[in-house]
Amino acid sequence: MNRPLKIILFVALLMALCALLITWFIHTAEAKRSGKLKLEGLTAPVSVYYDAWGVPHIDAQSEHDAYLALGYVHAQDRLFQMDLLRRIGGGRLSELFGAESFATDRFFRTLGISRYARQYAERLEQQADSPQVQLLHAYQDGINQYIDQGGRPLEYRLLMTKPDYFSTQDIANTMGYMAYSFAEAFKTDALVDTIRGTLSERHYRDLVPSWPDQLPPVRSSGQPYIELLTPMLEQISQVEQTLPVGQFLGSNAWVVNAGRSASGAPLLANDPHIGFAAPAVWYEAHIRTPDSEVYGHFLAGIPFPLLGQTRHHAWGLTMLMNDDVDFYRERVNPDDPEQVWAVDRWQKLQVHEEVIKIRGQEDRLIRTRSSRHGPIVNDLPGSLEREPVSLFWSFLDPENDSASAFYGFTRATSLDEFQAAAALHSAPGLNLVYADVDDNIAMWAIGKLKRWPQSSNGFSLLNGGSGRDDFLGYQPFETNPRIINPREGVIFSTNNPYAERNPRRKLPGYYAPTDRAQRLEDLLNREAPFDLSDFKAFQLDDQRPLALSMLADAMPLMDPQQLPEELRDTGTQALALLSSWDGHYRRDSQAASIFQRWQDALSEALFADELGPRYSYFRNTFMAEKTLASLYWKPTSPWWDNREHPSLDGRQAAITHAWKNALQGLVKDLGDDPQQWQWSRLTSLQHKHALSERLPFGEYLSSQPVAVDGGNETLNNMVFDRGTAQYQIKAGPSTRRLIDLADLNASLGINPLGQAGNPLDAHAWDQAEMFNEGRYRAQLFDWLSIRALPDQLELQP
């Protein structure tokens, strides 16, 4: 046999082996959605019907059997995602990814989530007979049986590893990561204190960390110490660039009662805003037993739905944005660096030694510390010289428990029972939006809300030693903000505060910018009744009225004749596009691109000279967006002074300079023809897999980049970071839900990707095009239709 023929045969054999290997990967990792399986612990057979989108409809004779089945089917679709979420909060990513994740693990261990999780597990074991704990154990038993007898997900084969069993503390680790995602204070407090320490009191007073009518308090305990939280800011920046799953960032939800509904029953809409990733965040499942029924959206590793509907009621969530995080500057004993002052005596810091296991390397022992307020968050590795700052975080309260609340939502049969379940939630703070078939609509602020002396809201470093800023306990749930059956028949939440005329009753928080709240309030302010088609249009709305009001004021200053000669023709065309713009961030809009680049340049002109290197942390916070919107109408603010270029001092100079910089940037990036500056050329959405940048060819596990409508703080909220030539959409609607309580069979929803986590599964990407085009699918609730589905998995004892 000659040499060329040998080479051809070798290549053919190699290709055949690769094809067989790929086929084996697909076959051994695929979810089983028909046939029969045996599960230990079942008391009776369970039928699982899969619809056309891979959603399991579980019909069981007991809740125990239902949640055991849920754990199994959830794991076969999303085990790797479950594993990642618990590992992030627990500081265990390095076991999978090696030393590259060590800094992330050390950061989350420093926050104390894993220590809380161990306490949480011990507390639940003492309540082993309670229904929610029994169901949690059943759910995790289902997950662990899949680990034992199911197929191994593709990701583990690529990483050449396998998952370990799930335990009770894993639910707390997952909730800890969610709570961290919600805590805007981790960035905001550090930046506020930096500004107080380096700039004038007038600069500080013009910040908007909370809401435009809630200015930060002038009183502060002690002087600002601008370098103390810098290590934490740097850690957060690094961690967020490497997190393998999305963060929880915001949400929309609204309800109308029967009098405002065309169907004669309440309507509910909800679209939580969470970081995009592959797979998508939510897993849908429908559970029925003789005693209960719920269609829910489940977070990986948590057995009870955070969003859902029963035959009696429906509920949704948004972030409350309350201030449940505070930082304390601790005064160190000069004779003993392990002691800090505690009101009237020196108190020893607690030292925690934990082992982080690192794949391919020796285990590393880390040493963290905590004061009476909480974990020390600014220790540098190998150094104890920095004055310690401790973290008070409501999530770490030893009594914190949310499982009881989420379980209660599925079992309630009246508004009063639902409210009683809501009272059990501790942290993070949430807005719980509700509607039921008895024509009740409501919204509660749920979670334990702090009581502080002198109503201090702690937007900057507090004094850890004096005692006057110490935590005083929580308010009773009865005093939490709430709206129940308002006269106007409409309730909405877009991460805005509850309306409250009494300033002493206003809840301090890190609220989102006002854009979505103003737009949704306008859309809901009409006499005609609403139907689900109206709510669809609202969820997909991409207009920013704030942009139009800013442009109306700025355009007279955008004189093309004041531009460099090479930009004048381009500027004239760009100005014409802006003058006819309707404020919509549609993918074919050129004006959206022009306005966004101008707004980004204006933000840099306002803040970059004063903040210096910290501007990179500041520009993508809610505080930056809110402060820019506020300062735009305050021409006398000192922020308009330009420290680096005094010739550009003043609001008018900043506006025109930003206009020139925006045009120059657009010409550089998109060419000199404004007709070609479509929003789709600046923005794209790609759902990235956790292994996309960790393995060769890992990018094939992610979705393809696509154009989308929407932008930052439009109702169809497509979130991106500023300061880059291309806007990579990083977060947005993690699902869109529309519920009409007149007919639950008409419920609508959409997943940004699909149900399956296995990228080779038929249901991994099957909803992506619909989501991108603003379409919806039915959420089946009719058991006659469900029983007729062709895919049925029979689980037997």
| CATH class bucket of the domain at 554-729 | Mainly Alpha
Strand order of the largest sheet: 1-28-2-3-6-7-8-9-17-18-20
Termini separation (Å)?
Answer: 59 Å
Strand content: 15-25%
Average pLDDT rating: 90
> Which architecture of the domain at 554-729 would the CATH scheme give at its second level?
Orthogonal Bundle
Instruction: Tell the overall outline.
Output: globular
Q: What is CATH's topology name of the domain at 554-729?
A: Penicillin amidase (Acylase) alpha subunit, N-terminal domain
Q: For the report, how would you describe the main beta sheet?
A: 11 strands, mixed
Structural class: alpha+beta
- From the alpha carbons, calculate the radius of gyration and give it in angstroms: 27 Å
Low-confidence stretches: 215-224
What is the subunit arrangement here? single chain
Amount of helix: 25-40%
Number of strands: 28
* SS field, number of helical segments: 24
Subcellular location: Periplasm
Organism: Halopseudomonas pachastrellae
Cofactor: Ca(2+)
Family: Belongs to the peptidase S45 family.
